Every structure is written in C-alpha cells, then in structure tokens.
Amino acid sequence: AGQGRLSLLHEKQSCKMTSGLFTRVTFRVCVDTQFGDSVFVTGNAPILGYWKTDKGFKLETSADKFPAWEGTALIHSGFSLEYKYIIFRNGEVLWETGPVNRSLKTSLEMMIVDDGWFNGIRVGVQIAPMSDQSKENNVVSKDVKTKEGTRDEKVKSVGNDVGSQGVVIVAAVLPIKVTKTSSGKYEFEWDQLRAVSKLRNKKRNFKYVGWIGIHVPEEDQAQVKERLIKDWCCYPVFLDQNLAYRVFDIFCQSVLSPLFHHIIELAEEGSESCWQWELWHEYEKVNKVYSDLALMPVSQGGPHSPTDRIWVLDYEMMLVPHYASRKCPSAHIGYSFLSVFPSTEVFRVLPVRIELLCALLCSDLISFDLFEYARHFLHCCSRLLGLEHRSRRGLIGVDFNGRRVNVRCGLIGFDVSGTRELRDSQDVVNIKEQLQKEFDGKTVIVSCDKIDRLSGISLKLTAFETLMRFSSHVWYGKLVLVQLLRRPYSTYAATELLESQRKELEQIEELASKINDEFPGSVRLIGPYEENPKIRLAYFGLGQLYLNTSVRTGLDWSPFEFVMCSEKQTAPLCVSEFLGCSRVLSGSFSMNPWNVDCVVDAVEKALQLSQADRQHRLKRLYQFVSNYDIDKWAHSILNDISNARKEDSGTPGLGLGPDSRFLRLEANCVYTHLDIPEVVEKYKRSSRRVILLDYGSAYAPHSLVGNLMVDARRYGARGATPSRPDMDFIESIKALAKDERNTVFLLSSQEKAMVQEWFPKETWEQYWANLGVTAENGCFYRWGKANWENLTEELDLSWKERARKLLRM
Fold first, then answer.
1. CA 309 → CA 164, 266, 443, 447, distances in Å?
2. 10 Å Cβ neighbour count for 376?
3. CB-based contacts of 127, cutoff 8 Å, min separation 6
4. Based on C-alpha coordinates, what's the Rg of the chain?
5. Total Cβ atoms within 10 A of residue 193
6. Which residues have C-beta within 8 Å of that of residue 113, sequence separation ≥ 6?
7. CA dist 301 to 89, 170, 172, Å?
8. Phi and psi of 209, rounded to 5°?
9. Res. 441: pLDDT tops 70
10. Do 163 and 308 contact (CB within 8 A), yes or no?
11. N or C of the chain: less Cβ packing under 10 Å?
12. What is the pLDDT at residue 149?
C-alpha cells in the first residue's frame, strides 16, 4: 500500500511541472478474493510498473465496496495504455486470462474505467471534462474529485446503455413460440425446446434474430414485429413457409446434418439427402437475409449498435459470418457450432466445402463443443485451404485474410437453475406421484432421444430384448423401459415428421410391439406429441437408470437433466461413448452401442450397484452438472469474442468469404479503405493518370495465391469466368479513354480470342491511343494500335523438349 501511495505522490509532484500532460484514471474491477489477497494493475505505463508484477499499482477495497477494488493513477494524456489485473495470493501471482490485454486511450480528461469482473468484460468508461482550474492544478486538486455515489451512478448508467454491450444472437428460429388463434390474434410464449431459449439472462442485453416459425401475412407483420421487439427483444425474419421448409428441414436436416454426423448420402437420387444446387442457393439467400437484419442499425428499427457483438449459432447459419463481414468489416463476430463437425474425409465430400470453410473463417471466434470437433475443423483448414493453425498464449488460431481467427472448444452449458426450478414445481411433483403408483414395485429404465436414426433407439430396443430374454428369471414383470421420443430440434417448418423420421418411428414402434408381445408391458413409448418438459422431468425423477445408445450425437441435455432429477434417487447412467457429452460424465457407464453384449453388461452392472457406489458416482456427476451452468458458458464465449475482436484499421474492406476473388491478404501488410473523395480530388488535379483495371481474373490466379490453396475446379462449375462486358462497363471505359490525360490498361488472364471478341477492332479503334489491353496474363498485349503484340515469340522454349524426356524417364 505504501509503495502505491509513494508512486502516486511522485506522479503528483511531477505534474506540477508538466501542467495538462496527465489524465486522472480511476481503475475499478470486481474480484472475488480470499483473505490476505492483494489486487494490482500492471501494464505498459511507468506507474503500472512496465509489466513488472512487483512494481504494479495496488488497488484498495473496503467492507462497503467489496468485491470492488479501485485506485486512481496519473497517466500521460494521449497514451495508448495496455494493462491487466493480477492477484497476489500466498506469494503467487494470478494473472487475468485472455488472448489480449485490456486497452485504454487516455485524453485530457478525468476517466473512470469500470472493468467489470476479473477475467470479465468491461462495463463502461465514464469521461468527465475538467475545468480550466483543475487542469492548472493537474487534476489532483480536490475540486475535481467526485463523490463515490455520483461516480458509481454514472458508471452504472454507462454500463447499462442498451447499445454499449449488446449481443445480437442469430439463430435459425427465434426462442418464441407464436400461434395464431381462430380470432386472428397472435399469442407469444417462450419456447423451451429451442437451444437458443436457454440463452436468457436479464442482466445481459441479448437481442435475438431468427425466423418466427409460422407464416405471417404481410398485413400482420408490422404488429407482430412490434410485439416481439417490445416484449421479447426478438427481431423476426419473415420467410415464406415453403422456403423455410426447403432450407431448414430439407437442406439442413436431411443434407447437412447426416453428413456432419458421418453419413454420406449426397448421391442418392430421389431421396431428401440428395444434393441439389437449388437448395444451396436458397440457403445462401436465407443466410443473407438473416445477416442483413442482424446488422440493421437501431436507428432503422434493427438490433445492431456499433459496439454490439454478433453471436451466430449452429450449421443453419454458416454463411452469416461471411455476409456480415462483407457488410460491416469491423463487426465483432462469434460462431458457435452446437453440432458435430465431421472429419476431413467426410467434409471434403461437400460440393461447397471451400465456401463453407471460408465463410466460417470470417468470424473472429469459432467455438466447438469438443476438441475432437475443433481438431477436425483445423485439419479441414489445413488440407483444403492450406492454412496451418498456431498456438499463441495457449489459444489456437488460424491466420486468414491477414487476421487471426481464434478457435476454442468448451462443452455448452446447461440451464441448471431453470431445470431445478421446474423439477421442484408442484406440477412435476404431482405427475411423479401418479407415475410412482403406476410403476409401483417395478424398476424403471428411462431414455429420452430424438426420432432420428443417429439416436440408436433400435439398438437400444435390441439390447433390451436380449437382456429380457437371457435374464427373464430376474427381470420378467419387474423391469420397464420408458422411451421418451422427442421431435428433432432442427425440424422447423414441417408440420409433420419428415419421411426419414417417419420410417424411423415405424421401426421403433414395430420393435417395441414385438418386445411387448413376448414380455407384456416391458416397453412404453411416449410419443413426440405427448412428451413435454414436465412429463420428462417426472420420469427422470422416477427412473432408476438412464440409458443412451446414440450412434453419434452432439448437443443433448437429457443426461444432465436426469442427473439433476435423480439427486435423491441416486440413479446411475449408461451412455454411449459416441454421445458428445459422454467425456464429461465421468460417473457414468460408457459403452459401445453397436455391441449388444456390451450394452447388456453395462445395464446389469448399473442395476446391481450398491448404494455406496451409486452415491459416489452421482456425487461426481452432480458436482460437474450443477456447476456447468449455461450462463457461465455464455459469459466465457462472449468474453472470448470481445478479446478476439478486429481492429478497424487492419480489417480488409472486401474479399471475405466464398464468393470473393480476393483470396488472401498477407498478415504483415497494411490495407486501408479507399477514400473515394480524396481519390476524386487528386484525379481532378493530376495532369497524367495511369489506370489499371482487372477484367478476367488477372490478379487472382486459379491455383495459388500466397499460401492459400484454392480448388480451381469449383470456379468453373460456378461460372467464375467473366461474361461479356455489359454496356455500363463499356461506357465507363470509353469515358476514361477519351480523356487525353488518361492511360487505361485492361488486364486479363483470359485467352486472346476471348478478349478480342470482347473488345473488337472496329468498335474501339478511336480509343487505342489511350487504351491498352492484355490477354493470357500479359503474354499478348495491344496498346496504341489495333494489332496484338506477342511477348513470347523471342522466348527460348527449347528447354521443354529436355523436360519432356526427363518426365518420360
């Protein structure tokens, strides 16, 4: 404390001789410290110790302020300050984690910096201009000191500003269930089935962008939009019902989802999984609509403010980062992949593999549930784009288009408080009591899965049949399997199950019927239209074992819900090793669902566990599940997005994403936006101008640009070769060539015959004095005359024959 006060005193004394050169900066941070801890701020300023931990600036707290720590330091005005907070604990130094330092630009004013929590996001900065007398006294006189209450209120108002720390969440469907009554009125309720609905925190300024889920006539859209924005902070995308069905239910659910789960069916003609370019173009169109709405300014009725972060969720919105970066290069974009990401050998099958990868790389941060999925993504970037990943300060990143894209992995959190509240509700308690009477004297195995072949329900029923057949003397009439069937999350516009889902349901019902014929009442199916959260939690509270046999599944909260509901039941879990969350369920039995004997053995072991083993396993499960709250996960994601944000001055203005011909920017080059007014002014003043125009991919070779490998064949398939110049282009070229002060050159990599067809001799004869044209990357050119010059005529190409002989050997 003495050292900090001496440093401040020294700065005060030096200020008397350097009037107006210092800014009074008050640092404030909340730290959940232990007894005996000290909090310091260190950075690149002298008073902060030049990053030396033993010379940092110490912060103070008190009983009425805790956990807030604060301190005021004098720092040179106009200084670009970088700093971090540290904790001294038992002789050790605990640094703030994060890929970048905190930063602040000081000015000739008093600044109060509220940095929120340790390792957290800044709340706000209050800037208070000083009086002339205060400046003369170098901002250390008593006249400029503000009362704590006033200061706190001002900082709080800055932190709560709607536009200051907003988050625009872009998801396929809004977390609102909208229904239209027979009287024509619209009713709204929070939809608990959607993953995005779990991201709800009154303390955060969440704004949601997504489809409304139903068709809304054009005359009703204004009132529906107003209600959603006012009451729910939801900004609806109004899509045609058929378009939503084709994009979300057919393309996303039947084409992308199976492939991401390692099922390749793109070539099956006539099936929903068959690749169709029309669906891909509709997918592009829908993603563009979402991106435009997400970036619509508040002044125009949209959700976006300049400091807002864009958070895009899951594979339905993979192109949104691309369109958002094109429209707003400085946008802070995070992308969370909630599904499985396939291996390179599977992902490369997609005809639009390059487009999807480049679009994802337009984000500042890409998040995956498991490191396995992140590793697959990094391998795809390496093998398909030639981009290698590097680790910096413990974070993995990919350098793309002159900037770093961070990649993180962390299992999505779980709505702990919401599940606990619903579990203890009277409705769930009443349902559970009724079920206990119905299943009295029986052992209940509970399962909850989506109607999907990847859920492995057929494998589960086969294993259960085997268990009953070979252990009927033990379990006949005493064991019941309750299978809750859920409608797939990604079924959006379809009012009924898709064809593949109907077939799966029929197979499940057939197997269940067969088992019940041999062992009456041993299997109970709860259909997708009967299942709801209250019934599900009641069954989970009743069950004595949870069984999962998924073949390959990403996001699934059912095991977490079961752990929360079995707190008193101390029921074990048997989960597939291919379940995404199986890695963190350390107290469960892990098994291979394809091995029926393995499943049967695991179920028998779990059912025969002693009470002590049950409690030990449940304790391990409950400790993880109860602490892994989704709000903590969201806070971590948003913090990483903020730390990975772009610098406006270093962001390319164009050429991001799949449709770009500007394929790479070198990381060590400085690119700035073209200042149109300045260029026009200099153009008017200049006496001679040379104008080089690219027409026909002269600047973008098809095979290699920098170290970014590009699949050239996709450009031919998608028509990248430029068409005949339109009239607007021709008239612009003629207008430039008419000016004697201009020398205009059109550069092209296309064949001479094609360029000659575009710019025929007769039409352009009067412009050749100031117009030049190249073909085949400069091998042929025409300038000042109508005839072509061949630069390859005098080249010695005799080496080719020798090269051919070597190749034949």
1. 10, 35, 49, 38
2. 21
3. 107, 109, 110, 111
4. 32
5. 14
6. 25, 26, 27, 28, 104, 122, 125
7. 49, 16, 20
8. -125, 130
9. yes
10. yes
11. C
12. 38
Q: Give the residue-averaged pLDDT of 376-388.
A: 92
Residue type, 475: W
Positions of E strands within 573-688: 573-576, 589-591
What residue type is 45 in one-letter code? A
pLDDT, mean over the chain:
80
If you write DSSP's letter for every residue of 722-740 in order, what string do you get? --S--HHHHHHHHHHHHST
Exposed e or buried b per residue across 479-495, where buried means at least 16 C-beta atoms within 10 angstroms of its C-beta: bbbbbbbbbbbbbbbbe
Per-residue pLDDT tens digits for 98-125: 667 888 888 756 888 888 888 877 777 7
DSSP string, 769-787: TTEEEEETTTTEEEESSSS
What is the structure's pLDDT at 270?
Answer: 67
Q: Which stretches of 451-597 are assigned E, i.e. beta strand?
A: 479-486, 523-526, 545-547, 573-576, 589-591
Pairing of strands 545-547, 523-526: unpaired
For 78, other C-beta atoms within 10 Å of its C-beta total 11
The runs of H, that is alpha helices, within 177-268 are 218-232, 241-244, 257-260
Q: Which residue has the tokens 């900090």?
A: 4
In Å, how far from its chain's centre is CA 44? 32
E strands within 21-175? 22-30, 38-43, 57-58, 68-76, 80-89, 92-95, 102-105, 110-117, 124-128, 167-173
DSSP 527-558: -TTT--HHHHHHHHHH-SEEE---SSBS---H
| C-alpha–C-alpha distance, residues 90 and 747, integer Å | 68
Query: Residue 574 pairs with which residues in a beta bridge?
Result: 547, 589
Q: DSSP assignment, residue 693? A: E
For residue 29, which amino acid is it?
V
Q: Which one, of 348, 350, 288, lies nearest residue 321 by Cα?
A: 288
- Calpha distance 245→793 (Å, rounded): 59
How sure is the predictor about 363, in pLDDT bands with cuts at 50, 70 and 90? very high
- Distance from C-alpha of 799 to C-alpha of 280, rounded to nearest angstrom: 47
Query: How far is 486 from 558, CA to CA, in rounded Å?
Result: 11
Question: Checking DSSP bridges between strand 234-237 and strand 68-76, what pairing results, if any?
Answer: unpaired
Collapsing DSSP to helix, strand or coil, 71 comes out as: strand
Phi, psi of 311 (to 5 degrees): -120, 110
Question: Three-state DSSP class for 610?
Answer: coil
